[in-house]
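Support case: user asked for a sample of complex input and structure output to validate their parser. Sending the pair below.
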Amino acid sequence: MLKRERQAYILHQVNLHNKVLSATLSSDIDVSEDTIRRDLLELSDTGKLIRVHGGALSHSFSKVAYPSNKVYGHNNKRVIAQKAVSMIRDGMFVLTGGGTTIIELARALPPALNATFITGSIPAIVEYMHHPNIDVIVIGDKLSRSSKITVGADAISKIQNIKADLFFLGINAIDLEHGITDNDWDVVRLKQQMIASSQKVVCLTISEKINSLQPIHISDLSKIDVLITELDPDDELLKPYINAGITVM
Amino acid sequence: MLKRERQAYILHQVNLHNKVLSATLSSDIDVSEDTIRRDLLELSDTGKLIRVHGGALSHSFSKVAYPSNKVYGHNNKRVIAQKAVSMIRDGMFVLTGGGTTIIELARALPPALNATFITGSIPAIVEYMHHPNIDVIVIGDKLSRSSKITVGADAISKIQNIKADLFFLGINAIDLEHGITDNDWDVVRLKQQMIASSQKVVCLTISEKINSLQPIHISDLSKIDVLITELDPDDELLKPYINAGITVM
DNA sequence: GCGGGTTTTGCACATTTGGGCCGGAATGTG
DNA sequence: CACATTCCGGCCCAAATGTGCAAAACCCGC
């Protein structure tokens, strides 16, 4: 990886998360911490970020001094994203929906990863766009204002022509009896088609949505291959899902 | 392989992947790295790419990395955007391409405006999304990294099915003899289809691009209905275009 | 088609840059 | 205050670069 490229990645991470740790960057990009330190030095010399012991902070962050755990469940989602990222291999075709968990996944993608992402979620596209080695296929149709993804017959028929390796589905409710449920008809139709168009379906959710219910049925548990939460895989809460034949991470 | 041919290949690779390594190019084209280095030197001298230790980066790449708030000709573009906005009426279907001028147009849309915008430009979509009363139709296809718009056969065939009221085209070069010209083949094909799919074609450009030329032909002047620049409509520079039958604003 | 000039290319050399590693100093942390 | 990280300043090696030079290819007018 070229020096400039690496520095651009660091800057992107800083602007995204407001903070970076040298150790994290080092393992992400796979260079020594010394190199990271030298990069941070250069970037702070040119005023692109603020160097602190152990990493760096974004410039905007220092102005507003409030703690980093601002969004409830944010760290949980980052844990989920890390687990999800570990499933992606070079060369894969990956379908993704929308939602904050998916955005976190997009942000956690290692810079070296070489894959094709297919989605109709505008915020996700914006994140993928920043990654140096990722190809993006945009699913076109009418943009749903509330969910910021494209929905409609066109979108569904395009997805029909795809057979992706993985589908990452951020879910709003999952339940042993009813499976996955949601509350937006258009989005449900889309998710159903995405499930049908993927070899492997991976559900991402924070644990509080487990054993909850929404009005519209998306799919029952049999179609789900993997379930990822922020919990340890052998947590009591997840046992029933393992028994139902789902791989839990 | 001819020098010119080689440099075209290099440029193509850079625009495709956003970065190239001298070593890779050398083995791909089968010339010495010295030659590659000399090519990169020439290409960076003419501003086609950015040379870094070990290879080169595309121009768009460094813009993402080091955002400079002073977009070239920014104020002029705001003037242009204001004029363009005044053409849009409630209920219209509007096609737009990409480019900084179009983004400025999107930002200048009055909140009360009720219209449908159709585009494949991700930055433009993001802007439209913020407006309360605007419907957005996303044109899907593979996302071009350099231009941040979707390009390809799917995109073109979708646009074929549309007949929009207006098409706002941000242009890179216009010239009395050759009409509108550009430098990216995929984008040119898309713009041609957009022109064909619209009742009225409105070209937006800052005045310095008037009477300039790019390698690939998009359309001649006869297809253009309106030309908007930051200049006064009766400026000397614009006279020839008025004589060619174009409405100048 | 041929001799002279220009351009392009490859090679050898010295120089610079990038990045890993190490030991001692500095900074956090409990 | 003791212990663990992190930082700093070298040091070193490999890779990339710039430069000068000579061979090869190309152009062009005669």
